[in-house]
Write the structure tokens for this entry.
Amino acid sequence: MKKKVGILGGTFDPPHLGHLIIANEVFHRLQLDEIQFMPNQEPPHKERDSHTTNRDRIRMIELAIQGNPYFSIEKIELERKGRSYTYDTMKMLIERNPNHEYYFIIGADMVEYLPHWKKINELMEMIKFVGVNRPNYQLETTYPIIQIEVPFIEISSSMIRHRSKHCETINYLLPYGVINYIEENQLYGS
């Protein structure tokens, strides 16, 4: 029997409660064996506006998921240089872990963008896509995706970086361990 693994990709700069809620909801609804948080090197669809290091992002994810034995970190995209395309990454992961069945979690904003993904038809044959609702986006596509409703929580990493830079509170938006790390390391101009 294959191990059912959810992949939640993102910049996680920083990881916040919205990420954790999505991971938790998908994990339980699909009865997965594990959720792997996969930080991107360079996402093809956006530029990173932060100067945090990969080490900082990994440490913040570790702090965010500590205590949950079903959450882990997949660093494959950080081991490669250049743009991170899901097709290339998943091909490598499947070769490394042939006994895993992968569920790739994306927000409704990315569901709308699926027709533009590199080798999307081949990717659809390799993995299952899980689309989660997001404010102001529809979960509509001609592609076969598993739709999961998650509680709406309008938190974004860019909002947290902005608040931190302007000395506004970020309490209750992310786990305290992550907040402490941001403050101790003076990330985002805090």
Notes: The longest helix spans residues 17-29. The beta strands are 3-10, 34-39, 71-73, 100-107, 128-132, 145-148. The mean pLDDT is 90. Helices lie at 17-29, 54-65, 86-96, 108-113, 120-126, 157-165, 176-184.
